[in-house]
Amino acid sequence: LLKLGGYGLIRISPLLNPHPSNLMFPIIILALWGILMTSSICLRQTDLKALIAYSSVSHMGLVTAAILVQTPWGLTGAMTLMIAHGLTSSALFALANTNYERTHTRTLLLVRGLQLAFPLMSTWWLLTNLTNMAMPPTINLLGELFIISTLFNWSPPTIIITGIGTLITATYSLYMFLMTQRGSISTQFRLLPPTHTREHLTTALHLLPLGLLIMKPALISGLFT
């Protein structure tokens, strides 16, 4: 739904061009403020799926602001980040489901130490969280750089908000990984069923495009260049 909303903004916003500044300015400011608010909410979440969902909303604040600025770089960055985060968010939800199928709880405090039980799945968690943080060489980094550059050219003070948002994103991504994978495993989870090949394949099919698309980003970002 978030990606469909971004698509709708891309299709409708040119109809408002040239934008009346008194209309678009408050909306862009609200989108930037939403990045900080939803990112901060992620830091206090105790439910794993709620944390992932709020993470998606935080990234969509960047997309909304970039689309409304209406520059080629902004639209390219918005499209790139929507596709990149669509894969990343889906991978996180899939990993959260593998945890839930074995522990039957989404509470972060109860599902600690799963690295001891599922070392390979812990590797997927690490790679997916690094992707969520827009670490190179993923396509997420390219999308965020386009958007941050666009917003900086539109108004230099926005670099403060986007910078803080990026820092908080890194914080809650590491928080998610540490809370689910590190620490001592609860005694009630000593006998957990093993992971399946289909679960590893599902995660790999999410992460491989994110790594490979950086070799030819024009496949998804060349629409507006």
From TrEMBL:
Subcellular localization: Mitochondrion membrane
BP terms from Gene Ontology: ATP synthesis coupled electron transport; electron transport coupled proton transport
Residues of the signal peptide: none
Amino-acid biosynthesis in keyword set: no
Cited function: Core subunit of the mitochondrial membrane respiratory chain NADH dehydrogenase (Complex I) that is believed to belong to the minimal assembly required for catalysis. Complex I functions in the transfer of electrons from NADH to the respiratory chain. The immediate electron acceptor for the enzyme is believed to be ubiquinone.
Gene Ontology cellular component terms for the protein in this record: mitochondrial membrane
Species, as recorded: Podarcis tiliguerta (Tyrrhenian wall lizard)
Enzyme Commission number(s): 7.1.1.2
Enzyme class label: translocase
Residue ranges constituting the NADH:quinone oxidoreductase/Mrp antiporter transmembrane domain according to the UniProt record: 1-169
Source domain of life: Eukaryota
Topological type in the membrane: Multi-pass membrane protein
Main location: mitochondrion
Matches recorded under InterPro entries: NADH_UbQ_OxRdtase, ND/Mrp_TM
Reactions catalysed, as given in the entry: a ubiquinone + NADH + 5 H(+)(in) = a ubiquinol + NAD(+) + 4 H(+)(out)
Transmembrane stretches, start-end: 23-43, 50-69, 75-96, 108-127, 159-180
Listed name of the protein: NADH-ubiquinone oxidoreductase chain 4
Keyword vocabulary terms for this entry: Electron transport, Membrane, Mitochondrion, NAD, Respiratory chain, Translocase, Transmembrane, Transmembrane helix, Transport, Ubiquinone
One Gene Ontology MF term: NADH dehydrogenase activity
Similarity comment text for this entry: Belongs to the complex I subunit 4 family.
Coiled coil: none
Pfam families linked to this entry: Proton_antipo_M
